[in-house]
Write a structure and sequence with these properties.
Elements (H helix, E strand, L loop, with lengths): L7 H33 L2 H24 L1 H8 L3 E2 L6 H14 L5 E5 L6 E4 L7 E5 H6 L2 H16 L2 H29 L10 H41 L3 H14 L34 H9 L2
Helix pairs in contact: 1-2, 1-7, 1-8, 2-7, 4-6, 6-8, 6-9, 7-8, 9-10
């Protein structure tokens, strides 16, 4: 039975559409949660909840976004890919940037024997690609080109900005939930006696407990969709799927014995392959299973 082929354009468009559907779902959770709180408290009090949630989430997340490259590079002890030793790597990055019509990202090296890479930076003009020493030592030129193409696609798609938007929305839900639960504990007797009722009170508490978990699961699903998009972008830039497939096969073999370098969980979603131990369920993974990614690539 022959495998149904799809173009990388179809794969990219499908995952873009699915990503925005998931964003709309998070927005819907915020609206429903706010409406339920309005039934328990005065609507004006709900507005205060939203303002506090938005301000705190924006300040924290946007601050992190502005300095995302410095934070990520320092956390993995990366150094700039300067000198003759990394000239070929820099040439590869510049060639891909030229082919995609993007500014060439700065290139950094992470001291790790694992095969991996990540991209960071707030926009293409301030972007960075970081590659592990293991990737340089163990990947062929064709495989490394595909890995670099994957990271270039993240930059081209403004994925750092997109992920920041999702983080703000998830942060709003978490902060509103926290404020709501604390207000119930410390100021429950001040609820609006006319509008509040037991049904909405119970529903509000359930949402306050479950909504942060639900939107976090959706956030991870969006992260996995962006990885499929970046894989498809690597095929587009390299004009073949073989390099990316071969690179992922090597990465899978590399991580079967577990990661050799410890990576902070906060920066793990940025990597091409998840550099931390597997979670007990795929819905809590930042990346799709490598076998699923390879299967999707074989269809292109």
């Amino acid at each position: 039975m022959s495998m149904e082929k799809i173009s990388f354009f179809d794969q990219i468009n499908r995952n873009k559409r699915n990503s925005w559907i998931l964003v709309a779902f998070i927005f819907l959770v915020i609206i429903v949660f706010s409406w339920v709180i309005a039934q328990v408290y005065d609507p004006g009090f709900t507005f205060i909840f939203l303002i506090f949630g938005i301000i705190f989430s924006l300040v924290y997340t946007v601050g992190t976004y502005q300095y995302s490259d410095q934070i990520a590079l320092r956390s993995v002890k990366a150094h700039e890919a300067s000198g003759d030793r990394y000239r070929h790597l820099r040439n590869q990055v510049e060639g891909l940037a030229l082919g995609s019509g993007m500014p060439a990202p700065r290139v950094y090296i992470m001291p790790s024997p694992d095969i991996n890479a990540f991209a960071t930076g707030k926009d293409p003009e301030h972007s960075v690609i970081c590659v592990t020493e293991g990737a340089l030592d163990k990947l062929s030129d064709r495989e490394l080109e595909a890995v670099l193409g994957h990271e270039m696609t993240h930059i081209r798609n403004y994925d750092i900005r997109f992920v920041t938007l999702i983080a703000v929305m998830v942060g709003i839900v978490s902060i509103i939930s926290e404020i709501f639960l604390r207000s119930m504990w410390f100021g429950g007797r001040n609820r609006n006696k006319g509008g509040g009722n037991a049904v909405f009170l119970i529903l509000g508490i359930l949402l306050a407990v479950l909504a942060p978990l639900i939107v976090r699961v959706v956030q991870l699903a969006i992260s996995r969709k962006r990885e499929y998009m970046a894989d498809a972008g690597a095929v587009q830039l390299a004009r073949t799927n073989t390099g990316m497939i071969s690179a992922l096969e090597k990465i899978k073999a590399n991580y079967e014995q577990g990661p050799k370098t410890k990576v902070n969980a906060a920066v793990a979603p940025m990597f091409l392959a998840d550099p931390v131990k597997k979670r007990f369920s795929n819905i809590f993974n930042t990346h799709p299973p490598i076998d699923d990614r390879i299967e999707a690539l074989r269809k292109m």
